[in-house]
Description:
Layout: E1 5-9, H1 21-39, E2 43-50, H2 55-63, H3 68-80, H4 82-85, E3 92-95, H5 99-114, E4 118-128, E5 133-135, E6 154-163, H6 169-178, E7 183-184, H7 186-197, E8 203-204, E9 206-208, E10 217-218, E11 221-226, H8 228-233, H9 235-238, H10 246-252, E12 256-260, H11 264-278, E13 285-289, E14 292-294, E15 297-298, H12 309-316, H13 318-327, E16 335-336, H14 339-369, H15 383-395, H16 399-420, H17 422-427, H18 433-450, H19 455-464
Parallel strand pairs: 1-2, 1-12, 2-3, 7-13, 12-13, 14-16
Antiparallel strand pairs: 4-5, 4-6, 6-8, 9-11, 10-11, 14-15
Amino acid sequence: MSQKNYYITTTLPYVNADPHIGFALEIIQADVLARWHRLHGENVVFNTGTDEHGQKIYKNAVEAGMDPKAYCDLYAEKFHGLKEALHLSYTHFIRTTDPHHVAAAQEFWNRCAANGDVYKARYQSKYCVGCELVKTDSELDHGRCPIHPKLEVELRDEENYFFRWSKYAEKLLALYKERPDFVMPETRLHEIDSFVRGGLQDFSISRLKEKMPWGIAVPGDDEHVMYVWFDALVNYISTIGWPNDTARFDAFWPGVQTAGKDNLRQQSAMWQAMLMSAGVAHSAQIFIHGFITADGQKMSKSTGNVINPYDLVTQYGTDAVRYFLIGGLPSYEDGDYSKKIFEETYTAKLVNGIGNLAARTGAMVEKYCEGKTPAVQPDRFDTPTFWKDYGAALAAYRFDEATRVLERYVTSVNQAIDTEAPFKKAKEGIDVSPFMYQIAEALRHIAIALLPVIPTAAETMLAQLSVAPETLTLPNATGWGKLMPGTTVTKGAILFPRLS
């Protein structure tokens, strides 16, 4: 049987400021999916990178007294550094200034133009530099963009190239009807369907070079550069070889895209219409996550209330940050961050839950079974149902529900220890080795389920059970009774130290 391919990509963050936990949420969600599919033996391409063109980046570079490319180099490295800080497993890191991407974006433009979907026109508009999008009056709040309220909305009057978005309304609606799972969750599909039904207006896809020179040159017209959204979206296909390496591209496309809700229109309507125009198959699925808020206010660079993921990792550790972003926030809606909520999640779920179980199990097997796994015993925790529910939650991008399923399983094992009270029975001369097998094997299942979520702690737990993570392939490893008798089990170090 040939190896199955899986492609997952995040959106590309602008390199106009330091990384914040809103993007950390998105890239960790994508990392969980990439790791989950690798556990199933699939060949995974996991793409992320940086979006480096556009007016606000050019403006910031000029204000900093830097060459735009040098400015982008500086910030791109900060985003690339998240790989180590957040223990990410991405395989591709694309920059929209990469020569291959530049060539691909120009070819994409040419194909849209050849299809009759690119034309030149003069227009007047209200433009939010923060969003890099034209805004209608209905999208503004007292004349300002609600996403970037500190920025002045610009009034523009110039001649640009346009993309015939209006031409693709019916095709987009047909796509949404044929693929009810095309955009997840369902509420976001209804939202974009309603938006398209309201009518699509052609959008500008170029900027005058004399006003904004930082962009990819429009083919055949030296006076214009590409609009950042037209250029950047092409990264999803250029990163896997389009248009030159057709064999590699065909092997992995279409894929899965993760995006924040403020990207809904761009990913599920603008990009899909562009793909149709260029003759490229549309994406398989788009998962839209909510914002991270603080006291009900969206975290954003424009409002200045951002949390730097590097700072959180320094204070709490990578696994604590990953677990909170995956399990401590709702997957489909906005989630609120605070130091109190973060620390409560860490203590209840990791210290008192998973960490406590791992320590108890190792200590008891060491004490009552001389540190060796006893004979195999039947499953008492309904483990098949656990795996069924866990897998279903990840398939639906319900990361929060996947962790709830895991936490319920952890609780059931901890409660069984309290009920069985093996420490009392052992004192009475009762053989507790059958129960020791059951909790050690249950811990193996928990550790495997944690590999996509908090890989460092999960690998430590598996080492405690003398199980090598690289030997595990699902679904085979999810069968009960795979922990072999005689295997060494140790207590190990404390996984999650208590907060002082």
